[in-house]
Design brief:
3 helices
Length: about 80
Amino acid sequence: ITIPTNVVIRKNRRMVAKRAGLENILLETDSPYCAPMQDLFPNTPANIPIAAKKLGEILGVEIEEIRSVTTSNAEKFYNLY
């Protein structure tokens, strides 16, 4: 499942992320929409670390684990090995 950067401000996105579990998540921008904060429009890939930090808080893991697992998930999904 993809989680956009507005997971920072949207309760429903946070609930979905928690239910999905880190092993099933890809982070994405849904650019130019779904920015992590209303003043960050248009949304860009540079905002992914903001979402990763929030996802770490939601799931109770360090941001490095978020980075590692979501990167691995993307590599598997897109068959980038």
